[in-house]
């Protein structure tokens, strides 16, 4: 070791170098502690992600058993609406209909389902929330839902139906009006904190038919967790189940 100002430098570093290292470490610690995703925030987000995956699994199981996707709950009672007589496509997760416990109101997730009915031609119908004989064989089963999903793939992008916008990255800006990216079979949005300060526990765009992409990173003004199910992904799951 060499001496600097009559004092020893530790482990080959000068005190100036050590001071720089300590300053950088302090800055990093301040950033982590001041960031909204602190330890509690990370745990909260992970819990929301698990909840979203549980809902997705329950929706898949419902689809397999009923040859359709569940309609949203618009009354906060845990029960799905009647999608035969209504055009509802967004609302709350219908927990009771899915056989799930209804969480506290502050943790209930937003849910959207793709609906594109074709009243003139059942074979071309893409209303995923109704059970329909799309094959014309006089019965309804999983293959009719698969046909509906395949029909949905061919539909033009239209913001009258549920869709995903960007992620402020590869998929472009989070802008429902200017950057609609793609339709999905269904999406689930789990709220965390009111990051944008508008008094609504859902942040950013989550008030209607649009959700930001699941790849969206959390930021100071948004932290909702989004789970989506693509048409082709759901077709693959149904075929393998």
UniProtKB/TrEMBL annotation:
Pfam families: N_methyl. Keywords: Membrane, Transmembrane, Transmembrane helix. The chain crosses the membrane at residues 12-32. NCBIfam families: IV_pilin_GFxxxE. This is Prepilin-type N-terminal cleavage/methylation domain-containing protein. It comes from Vreelandella gomseomensis.
């Amino acid at each position: 070791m060499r001496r600097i100002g009559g004092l020893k430098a530790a482990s080959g570093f000068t005190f100036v170098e050590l001071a720089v290292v300590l300053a950088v470490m302090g800055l990093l610690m301040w950033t982590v502690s001041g960031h909204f995703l602190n330890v509690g925030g990370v745990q909260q987000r992970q819990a929301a992600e698990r909840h979203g995956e549980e809902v997705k699994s329950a929706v898949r199981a419902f689809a397999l058993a009923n040859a359709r996707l569940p309609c949203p709950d618009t009354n906060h009672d845990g029960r799905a609406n009647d999608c035969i007589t209504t055009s509802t496509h967004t609302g709350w997760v219908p927990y009771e209909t899915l056989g799930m416990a209804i969480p506290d109101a502050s943790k209930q997730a937003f849910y959207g389902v793709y609906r594109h009915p074709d009243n003139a031609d059942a074979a071309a119908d893409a209303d995923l929330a109704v059970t329909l004989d799309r094959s014309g064989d006089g019965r309804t089963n999983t293959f009719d839902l698969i046909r509906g999903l395949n029909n949905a793939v061919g539909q033009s992008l239209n913001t009258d139906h549920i869709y995903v916008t960007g992620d402020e990255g590869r998929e472009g800006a989070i802008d429902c009006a200017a950057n609609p990216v793609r339709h999905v079979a269904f999406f689930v949005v789990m709220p965390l904190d009111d990051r944008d300060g508008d008094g609504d526990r859902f942040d950013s765009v989550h008030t209607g038919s649009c959700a930001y992409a699941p790849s969206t990173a959390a930021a100071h003004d948004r932290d909702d967790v989004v789970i989506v199910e693509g048409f082709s992904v759901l077709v693959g799951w149904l075929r393998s189940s």
